[in-house]
Amino acid sequence: MGKLVVRIVENGHSYRINCDEHTPVESVQKLLESISGIPFKDQLLFCFGVKLESHSPLSAYKLPSGEEEVFLFNKSRMRINSPPPTPEKFKINVIPINPPLSPPSSSRGPHPNLDDTSDPALNALPSYETQFRNHLQSGSAIYRRTLAMFEICERLLQEQEAQERALDVAKGNLDHFYKMVCQNYTEFMKCYSQQDCSHRKFLVDFGREKEKLRSIKIMPLLQNANRKCLLDFVDEENLQKVWEECSSSHGRFEKKVLELKTEFGDLNGQVQDLFSCKTSNFIKDVEFEDVNTVKKLLEDYISRQVSPSPILPHNAFSALGPTYNTHEKDYLPKMRACDNAISTLLDLCTDKKNESNLYVHNYMQKIARMQYIIKDLRYKFSVFSEALKHQNEQFHQLKVLHGVGPAYMACLAEVERRKTATKMYMENAEKLSEKLARERDFEIRRRDEFVKVHSTFIPPDILASMGLYDSINPCYVNVAPLPGGSTTLAVTDTTILQNDAETKIEALINEVSKFERESEINRNLLDRLRSCATSADFADSLRVLAQSLVRAGEESNEDSTFKLRECIEIIADKVGALSRQCEDLEENRDLVNTLCTKNQLENQANKERISFNQLQVDEIAAFLLNASGQYQAINRDCPYYYLSPDSISLLSDNRPSYIIGQVVHIERRTVESPLSETGTSRLTSSQESTPNPYGLPIGCEYFVVTAAILPDTNVDYSPRS
Predict the structure, then answer these.
(1) Residues 156 and 265 in one domain
(2) Which residues form the Ubiquitin-like domain (predicted)?
């Protein structure tokens, strides 16, 4: 069994309950209901900042523990309309100034009759005894009353300290949920800010994007009665309605978010004000010196009492008068003054305790209100997050307007790329056809020479039976067009010579047999190599393996083992060098990342500027329409860059004076004399039918550039360095 210390937060009262770790929390709550009067349903128990659940045993919270205390919060007191706590009052018995004298003692010792003596000092002794007894009773009563008031003050101070610790627990619980709602608010506002900026841009740029798409005409081959420009790719009327709905929804949602910001700002201010409150009404570090003073005076007074013995000398009787005066004029007035001071202190402690109870009552009501606001805000954040997703889906239709232009440019570039790829494909097919024809002619001549040499010795029918008069079948390469301008390559009518296949199969079988014999020998070596690969230090493991191969080579006297050892040593050295280089690279990672980023930015900047030097693929070039009707690139080093006829065919009939395009393919050519053409048939395109379409001198080198025309390009016209 152990003691469970329970503190009632609303008044600071404490209860010690006998229980063990198997006692359910519910049993403790029922007992507290009977002794504290707080209903079971209104009880909130906290320990270690954790709420105690009714269905759990005390062992779940490592209770009972002699060092930890459980705080009981009354939920009914935390409601807004709950009445304030009743002021506490303490009743202390009043000590009369002159208490009634106690009856004298029945025995006066060996001299009971002092009335017959003629000595006046002895006759006054009973009166002194009576007065001193009265003084002792008064001092004792004052001391007991002062001690009782002191204990009450001390208990009030302990209760206020318990209330202060309970408020710390309540603030810690509030701070936990406040941090959660702050995190939810931060995450929501981050997502909202990004989405709001994007949606606002869509709404503002809507009209400009429409006019931009309206101004871009599509290719003449793609035009019809309903499609003249890029804007015709979308339903303009429906898109206008979507824009109006999105604009209205965006405005309404923005107002709701502003209200949420205001509500969260108010909560933040209230929580900060609540956390900054100081419990200044609590009494601390009170020194009860008056009680010690009363106790000291009483002890001194008792020690100075004079025994009423008639055999005392006269000098002892002469001291009774000053002692009586000291009691009446010094000790008793001081004790009564101390009693009044302690009484005043008790009144002060009582007032402060009542103020503390009221402060705790109001403070807990504020915390309960904050908890309610936080709970409501957390629910609103989930609702606002769903609204954020819904609005993003609504704006998705507006994003189509911004994607039409880039998608159309990508399609034009893809058309140019496919044409260039088709042309290269046809050229490769032509080369393949010529190569197969040459190989067939060579094979036919070789077969004819063989028959011519051996037909003198072998009868023709035998040669025919052996198939030595057979001729190799021709192989045709046909490039057939497919739908959409694609091409397909078909190799037809191919025949395998069976003898060569059998020879290759036999050689392959021999290789497999040899590999099976060697695999058993090298299996151990492979396992060791695998273990080296998985080791932490790969280079050192390879060196150890190489040393072991030295001993194995000496035993087997095989050159292959020594060669393998040399290879492994070379690999080990290279791996070690690579490891050191990796360490150096790891040390210079930041520098490498900076240089890579700089290089990427420079490449991106170069791609966005017009090139006036030697052109490369993916660069942007400017072409001017010259006097001969050809588009010639503006270039410093090599002036003979011309736009390909395929790219020119995509233009409308009204050719512009200049064109800006992205280079897709560059073909290098040399002007040749018409007489130098060979008789071999070639697959040529229409632009190659004219040997010198640009009027250049024979032997001059020029370039035909295939480019994707940029209909509306924002590029940098500054020369590239």
Answers:
(1) yes
(2) 2-66
* C-alpha to C-alpha distance for 396 and 401, rounded to whole angstroms: 10
Categorize the per-residue pLDDT at 506 as very low, low, confident or very high, splitting at 50, 70 and 90: low
**Do 133 and 186 belong to one domain?**
yes
Strand partners for 516: none
Compute the mean pLDDT over every residue in the chain, rounded to the nearest whole number: 78
In 533-639, which ranges are E strands?
Answer: 620-625, 631-633
Among 398, 416, 437, where does a domain finish? 398
Burial 388-414 (b: 16+ CB within 10 A, else e): beebeeebebbeebbebbeebbeebbe
Closest to 18 in 3D by CA, of 9, 33, 31: 31
Q: Is 221 within the bounds of a domain? A: no
Confidence of residue 708 (pLDDT cuts 50, 70, 90): confident
Query: Would residue 330 count as lying in a domain?
Result: yes
**Tokens 């007035």 belong to residue:** 333
As a residue count, the chain comes to 721
Query: Model-level pTM greater than 0.70?
Result: no
Same domain assignment for residues 519 and 553: yes
| Spatial separation of the C-alpha atoms in residues 380 and 376, rounded to whole Å | 6
Q: Residue 366: which residues within 8 A CB-CB, separation 6 or more?
A: 270, 274
- Quick check: is 84 in a domain? no
Residues 416 and 644: beta-carbon distance below 8 Å: no
Rounded to whole angstroms, how far apart are CA atoms 528 and 538?
12
CB 711 within 8 A of CB 660: no
Q: What range does the domain containing 531 cover? A: 502-587
Read off the DSSP letter of residue 300. H
Residues 521 and 391 in one domain: no
Q: How far apart are CA 173 and CA 367, in angstroms?
A: 10
User: Per the structure block, which two tokens stand in for 313?
Assistant: 């000398």
β-bridge pairing 620-625 and 658-670: antiparallel
Number of domains in the chain: 4
- Which has more pLDDT, 511 or 376? 376
Which residue from 597, 599, 606 is spatially nearest to 715, judged by alpha carbons? 606
As a whole number of angstroms, the longest Cα–Cα distance in the chain is 191
Are residues 637 and 578 both part of a single domain? no
Q: Which of 7-11, 432-436, 532-536, 689-693 has the lowest mean pLDDT?
A: 689-693
Model pLDDT for residues 208-230, shown as the tens digit of each residue: 989 989 988 888 888 898 899 98
What gap in Å lies between CA 203 and CA 247, rounded to an integer? 7
Rg (CA), the chain: 55
| pLDDT over 80 (residue 460) | yes
